[in-house]
From TrEMBL:
GO terms for cellular component: cytoplasm; nucleus. SUPFAM superfamilies: SAICAR synthase-like. The lineage of its organism: Eukaryota, Metazoa, Chordata, Craniata, Vertebrata. Keywords: Kinase, Transferase. Its EC number is 2.7.-.-. The keyword Nucleus does not apply. Belongs to the inositol phosphokinase (IPK) family. The keyword Kinase applies. One of its GO terms (biological process) is phosphatidylinositol phosphate biosynthetic process. One of its GO terms (molecular function) is inositol hexakisphosphate kinase activity. The gene is Ip6k3. This is Kinase. It comes from Rhipidura dahli.
Amino acid sequence: LGPGEGRAAVLLQPFVHQVGGHASMLTYDEHTICKPLVSQELSFYESLPLAMRQFTPQYKGIVSVHLKKDSLGNLTLIASPESCGRLDSAGDDPAVTLWHKRRWTGSGGSEHGLVKWSHSQVTKSFKDSCPGKKLLRTDLQYHTDSLLEDANGNQTERKSYNPWGLHCHRQHLNRMSSKHNENKLQQFLLLENVVSKYSYPCILDLKMGTRQHGDDASEEKKARHIKKCEQSTSASLGVRICGMQVYQADTGHFLCKDKYYGRKLSPEGFRQTLRQFLCNGNQMRTDLLEPIILRLKALLSVIRKQSSYRFYSSSLLIIYDGQEHKESVDHHLPFPKTHGTNPSRVDVRMIDFAHTTFKGSKSNPNPTLHDGPDQGYIFGLENLIKILQNLSEGK
């Protein structure tokens, strides 16, 4: 037996709660997700300022992944456990099969093969892989306003997942299969799954700052990002909506919005969508406003102290559980208090640091040095806090 052979392989799934971004996120285990490694992001996690740790996912190491193709043309990604760096719980980390085997079929002259998703198969393997876990309730329907279709115009998977993550996943598989190379190792970052403790994670993904392009962007990319900012609330508010899922208690469905919806919003539309994010179909969750505002203020004071950091194109997640825990209210169960709020009721986390630059970055030894804190990010946070404060005052 070679290293890592003969151990039970773990099947990794598309991460069903991905609401934004374009890198495909995968579920590694219940508390860990992985994403393709970008050296600038790794450099950020490796030199993370202590004060920022409570506002970012925990970095758990790196795993190497290679593509495998069987005689039927099914593709699988296998992660080599012996290459697993710094994974805290990696006692005897098994070899990891990163993707379900999928049949590739040529589709009417398109340059890429197309994934045929067998819906019941995906749902079944999800259920098998985590019996009794509320995390991946595949029986819940996700609703979305902008339908994502595959090349054949099918919308079959609309029934079970937030369609955005599936869309990223399909694109990623298409890219990988077109560059198909069995021996090429690809590295993935292992990060804390920050929504794993929620039964029905309600997630708002906000693109922060008035500028989105990195220092290394080409002129063409720079122009494209500047235009997106000017035509959205990024310019006026320093924040725009990149994705959202909200559990609707009255229907048992998630309401989903994607980045294209977020780009079209006016400042007033942005306010209304924030209000919608806090509505569970029956009522407005006003109880969440204070804890969210407190956490955003705490983050603001941390960002103000980070000199030279520029968080271009990074996102801020606001998370809460769509299932209210009434029993905790009824029985006055003690909760650990931090800043007067129950820490697990809401969470605020920064993610996506592929274009983050700072003095002393290992991946970028000669970065464009920026002075002082990230004013665009601060502008966005201040406006976000202001809008939430107005909501809490009933404006």
